[in-house]
Amino acid sequence: MTENKNSNGFDTGGRREQAVAADTRTLVVCPYVTRGESSRSPEARREEAIGLARAIDLAVVGSAVASLSEIRPATYLGKGKVEELAARVKDEEVALVVMDCALSPVQQRNLEKAFAAKVIDRTGLILEIFGRRARTAEGSLQVELAHLDYQKSRLVRSWTHLERQRGGFGFLGGPGETQIETDRRLIQERMIRIKHDLEQVKKTRALHRESRKQAPFPIVALVGYTNAGKSTLFNRLTRADVVAADMLFATLDPTMRSVKLPHGGMVILSDTVGFISDLPTMLISAFRATLEEVLAADVILHVRDISHVDAQAQAEDVEEILADLGVTEADEKLIEVWNKVDRLDEPHRAALGLAQREAVAVSALTGEGLDELMTAIESRLARERRTVDLDLDGADGRSVHWLYEHTEVMARRDDPDGRVHMTVRAGPEAMARLLRKFA
């Protein structure tokens, strides 16, 4: 497999996919069952579905919300709604219909026949987005594994992804239905090879985590619903240039940078992929290696877009996935970060202050509240840290330097006789090394 790059090193394959998407007239259909309780409003769900489609540059020409009393096994939608949408697809010359639900292979095939257009469900769309966003070798492997898992149960479409190094738009191009007899055995063999490669990646990441423990710098992981502002916050705290856009899944591959705390201690800040409602189960499994960074973190920042109309529902989706990973809402290392307070008017800000409890309100865009956030991170880390007083010879510059490098220096006093008195704080690993060094 080879990459498609021009002489300047740009990904020409990605540009072609973007061009194809821009010419693909797309209708977003949002079929929601009315029975049962849902904390998410239909309008917010519709906006999110449109955002997912636009995240890979599809030309969304319209949308429709369909209220269902029950799910039909053949077409998901009722007969009348299918006929209504088929007429609209024809009149508006729609080439792709995005269904904001999980379709069975039979439902997908029947809808394509009824609409005379390509149909993709929410799971397939999210997989396509991840295929576009993956930049590292690990991310590409994880996306391909999830895509293969999804594809092997529906051998009704062409599988062009096997011929490319990166994912994206398997549903837009290719020979269509001419490869229905895709060899399931080849897909399974490819999945086995990818799982083996990911195991090697997992071991490498474990070694990297062990080496970081020797530093030792605590890990602070950013998690949250997609487009909650994690990357903007990451950039503000680290002065980095990670992609931060008002777009769903702007970040896929994890990124790490070091950050200095108020008292001089260092932490490693990790930006992770955004969560989303109804995240495909095969993606949760495929991205386990990435999410292990969250489990290994000393502090987890749950970043919420507090200005969003569905902020609470989004938070519940994130908490559910974290719980699956073994991180509960009451976990000692979890801090809620209420982001985008700059978008709130004064009455909403006042109400937010009353409900804030232990959460930290910030604006990653303006920098408001970031000092309080850094102090909260430091305080949370201090719960597992010990403080000791040391009396050193001022001429022992190497020891003094070591303390500044590996601990938080809380206070220092230099005496006229050349002695240096230092109060330092450190976590378990660094404290053990400190006690051995300064026995």
What does this structure look like?
By secondary structure, this protein is of the alpha/beta class. The strands form three sheets. Strands 6-7-5-8-9-10 form a six-stranded mixed beta sheet, sandwiched between helices. The chain has 15 helices and 13 strands. It folds into three domains: 12-178, Rossmann fold (3-Layer(aba) Sandwich); 215-381, Rossmann fold, CATH 3.40.50; 386-437, no CATH class. Helix 5 (122-133) runs antiparallel to helix 6 (137-151) and helix 6 (137-151) runs antiparallel to helix 7 (184-214). The longest helix is centred in the middle third of the chain and has 31 residues, at 184-214.
What is the name of the CATH superfamily of the largest domain?
Answer: GTPase HflX, N-terminal domain
Mean pLDDT: 80
Largest sheet: spatial strand order? 6-7-5-8-9-10
Structural class, from secondary structure content? alpha/beta
**Helix content, binned percent:** 40-55%
CATH class of the largest domain: Alpha Beta
N/C terminus separation: 57 Å
Which percent band covers the strand fraction?
15-25%
Q: In CATH terms, what is the fold-level topology of the largest domain?
A: Rossmann fold
| Strands, total number | 13
Just name the CATH architecture of the largest domain.
3-Layer(aba) Sandwich
What best-fitting shape do the alpha-carbon axes yield?
A: elongated
Largest sheet: 6 strands, mixed
Low-confidence stretches: 1-12, 156-169, 173-181
What is the element string, with H for helices and E for strands? HEHEHEHEHHHEHEEHHEHEHEHEHEEH
Give the C-alpha Rg.
Answer: 25 Å
Number of helices: 15
How many structural units, i.e. domains? 3
